[in-house]
Specification:
Blueprint lengths: L7 H4 L1 H10 L8 H6 L12 H8 L21 E6 L2 E6 L3 E3 L2 E4 L5 E5 L2 E4 L4 H22 L5 H14 L8 E8 L2 E8 L4 E3 L2 E4 L3 H11 L6 H18 L6 E8 L2 E9 H16 L2
Antiparallel strand pairs: 1-2, 1-10, 2-11, 3-4, 5-6, 6-7, 7-8, 8-9, 11-12
Helix pairs in contact: 5-6, 7-8
Length: about 280
């Protein structure tokens, strides 16, 4: 199988910018120069942009960013799992910045092509931009080779891009999933270029709650209805316990015919549905 390699002219954009700035002790960008080069990648106008970003804008866990002036306060729950009849992708839709809920209707599943899906966790702008960029790369591969790109190759393209921008302050924890010649495939890719293959993943502040449900009830031989119910319940329990997750549960099913959106249900409606089930079970 022919491998698709990203040209160094694409991957080295950030490095060229870094080298251009490091050649000067001080640098200022005037408004005209920015307007004339609207396609350029802007970096901090300091001697070492990468070190400046790492010191002041790093996306960290725990309190390791306590000394930063700007702290990333993220929150979400996304999950995906493989089973015998395909892949289920289930996400919430709440966008937060700390205690502030910026939106309750964010689309956290990126439809890369009819057979490929990506999820968003971390910085919404970073995930949205780079996964749509991945869609462009996948389309170019298809035009050059006359066939669809494999899920493994698509995830590797994203991991390569993330590796080239490591240390520049990106915040991404994504899943790339779809169906190719080898069947259903699922990969996790994050902002430092880590790429993992697995049967199920959950990413975000509510992922620990979602993993509890998945670890307890996941089976490869589930029916489609059981798999849909598991994806729905895992997101519900995460949104119920995690204040940074909520809104709408968007759920997709991926098969050999491509992905299909199953539902978009308010998690508040699911709460009353599952509470009624719980009460009925207690009285049996």
């Amino acid at each position: 199988m022919n491998e698709f390699i990203i040209g160094s002219d694409i991957l080295d954009i950030g490095k060229r910018q870094n080298n251009r700035h490091s050649c000067h002790e001080s640098c200022t960008l005037s408004a005209p120069s920015i307007l004339e080069n609207s396609g350029m990648l802007l970096v901090p106008t300091v001697k070492n942009p990468a070190e400046f970003v790492r010191s002041n804008f790093s996306s960290a866990c725990g309190n390791s960013d306590a000394k930063q002036e700007v702290k990333f306060a993220k929150g979400t729950t996304t999950l995906a799992f493989k089973f015998n009849d395909g892949i289920i992708v289930s996400v919430d839709s709440r966008s937060t910045m700390g205690a502030y809920i910026a939106s309750g209707t964010v689309k956290k599943v990126i439809e890369i092509n009819p057979f490929l899906l990506g999820t968003m966790a971390g910085g919404a702008a970073d995930c949205s931009f780079w996964e749509r960029n991945l869609g462009t790369q996948c389309r170019l591969y298809e035009l050059r080779n006359g066939r669809r790109i494999s899920v493994a190759s698509a995830s590797q393209l994203l991991a390569n891009t993330m590796s080239s921008y490591r240390g520049y302050g990106l915040s991404m924890g994504t899943m790339i999933t779809g169906w190719d010649e080898t069947g259903p495939q699922l990969y996790y890719v994050d902002d430092d270029g880590t790429r993992l293959k697995g049967k199920y993943f959950s990413v975000g502040s509510g992922s620990t709650y979602a993993y509890g449900v998945l670890d307890t009830h996941y089976r490869p031989d589930m029916t489609v209805d059981e798999a849909i119910d598991l994806g729905k319940r895992a997101i519900y329990h995460a949104t119920h316990r995690d204040a940074y997750s909520g809104g709408i549960n968007n759920l997709y099913h991926v098969t050999s015919d491509g992905w299909r959106k199953i539902h978009a249900i308010d998690v508040n409606e699911m709460h009353y549905q599952f509470e009624e089930e719980k009460q009925n079970a207690m009285h049996v």
